[in-house]
Design a protein that fits this description.
Layout lengths: L1 H29 L3 H18 L4 H12 L9 H7 L9 H25 L17
């Protein structure tokens, strides 16, 4: 039972990391301290796509499932099993990767623009409305 929970937890965390990789830069517009974590996650994602290095979460999920007596992940790993052919057709893999890359770059450009506009990290939404004196 514990091994299965480990496998399931790794799968959930993996999905959350992928979502954060796609939209974390936009979250950093509101919470600027997230940008460092987003840079790290995006760098890992780029490196794994470019080099094919296996994600540790895939290893943990596969280990948990096998030790629970289940089938492990297929040779393509997490993305091949849960994303490609499920969320989008496999022949659109490069287009999906390009879409995520564009999304990340747009979020970073927006982050930089907001930081220049509000250098101390405060936005108009953070400031209380002006009090009118009589």
């Amino acid at each position: 039972m514990a091994y299965r929970l480990i496998g399931e937890a790794a799968m959930v965390v993996h999905f959350l990391i992928l979502v954060f990789m796609a939209v974390g830069g936009f979250l950093a517009w509101r919470w600027p301290r997230l940008i460092r974590a987003h840079l790290a996650v995006a760098a890992w994602g780029l490196m794994s796509v470019m080099t094919g290095v296996e994600c540790p979460l895939t290893v943990v999920e596969d280990w948990g499932r096998r030790n629970a007596g289940e089938r492990g992940l297929p040779p393509g790993g997490f993305i091949d099993h849960y994303i490609e052919g499920v969320v989008y057709p496999q022949e659109y893999t490069n287009l999906a990767r390009l879409g995520v890359l564009i999304l990340v770059l747009v979020s970073w450009l927006g982050y930089l623009w907001r930081r220049r506009r509000h250098p101390r990290g405060h936005t108009e939404a953070d400031c209380p409305p002006p009090v009118h004196q009589r």
